[in-house]
Amino acid sequence: MTTHVRCGSLFSGDDAAPRRNVTLGIGDDQCIAFLCDTADAPPVAVHDTVLDYSNLFVMPGLIDVHTHLAYGNAKSEEDIDLYQPLEFRALRALFFAQKVVAAGYTSICSPGDAGQVSLSVRNAINFGLFEGPRVTAAGRYLTTRQGLTDWYPTWIGVPDTSIGRLVTSKDEAIEEIRVQVKNGVDCIKLALDGTQTRGNGELIAAFTQDETTTMVTEAHRLGRKVVAHAMGREAVLYAARAGVDLIFHAFHLDDACIDAILASGSAIGPTMTFQRNIIDFTQPHEPAAQKGRPAYVERQYAIACENIQKARKAGVPMMTGTDTGFAVTPYGEWHALELEIFVRDLGFTPAEALRCATAVAARFVNHGSKVGVLEPGRLADFIAVEGSPLDNIAILQDKARIRHVHIGGKRMQIPERGYDPRQVTDRSLANWTDLYTQDRVRELYPARRQLAAAAE
Ligand SMILES: [Zn+2]
To answer: Distance, CA 328 to ligand 1 centroid (Å)?
Structure first.
């Protein structure tokens, strides 16, 4: 049995311009059997199915390499680490994973989560218990004293339910990597930025070069990839020299970092949506605003735009990610804003941005050689969109335009279900920001969002 998908236009993920009037054939093995002009397509047999997407734009399912499944739209560190049991976080993650699919995302990397939440969600989906995106799962971030995720006072430490795992020696780090690998993670997450700065404001890396290299070498020896949170120049440099596969943020990279990244074959996931939303959405009453966070983030964002463009021009591969999972980046809401940022602020063409979110990002996630591009032999993970994102990249943020999502050929049926954020998260005493869904942002800033323009 073959499913014949008649596509008005089709962007394979690998080409500069879409093809018109093509048919995508899906076989019983969840893979693409053929892709050809509709005029030349094989005849439709008796038990075959025909899907008429002739007024839609078909492209590979989108990939977000930075979606934290366990955070639950967190409003504070405590929300991330403390207030819900791991078992509830896993159930919540499964619920939110559906919202990610509905937004057109068929693969994600969940780079750092408490317990075994992400890999459990991955397994539940892989085993066919629930529908959801393909998940590439990390476990807890490896951190050290004064590193990211070691954010409570020393007398509290890093609790067991935290997203971080505090290691205080190379031996402990190796032990933790081996435990996580045994438990079944796909990648190891390193918290490479420290919390301390030099006199000139530069962030000091949390780990030394030697420690970083030891951790990456051990993860690679065990056949796992490594991702790192590295905002500061020093952390980016250590990550690149150690051969970290995917470096997040890299806002303060310099030429030495670029050279090291090119030499090691690393990629960057700038993940600027989180910062953009803090700048654009934060209201004056929120603690984030009162602490001057939006203004600080805006300065960082401007530096990042300049530096990331340098890396792009030098040929560093860029992957799209959003840091979804915070209240400022709720699940299913802003994933595709990163593509708009790639075009507007980082100098990519719309076709290049689409490739970053498909063919390029596929190089990192599970089944990398089978997703991200539409061609015979690959898995039939694709979406059908109303309108062309090549004409206006912002339309991908309009959920109503994501008409169909297929994973392994199967059309996802995602129920439209609401939730009360005060019940699912929202336990902490002081919050960073409110919850910024698209509806809420339109309500607050009617003139400000581009989505109105996108819908023209
Ligand atoms: Zn993150």
So the answer is: 13
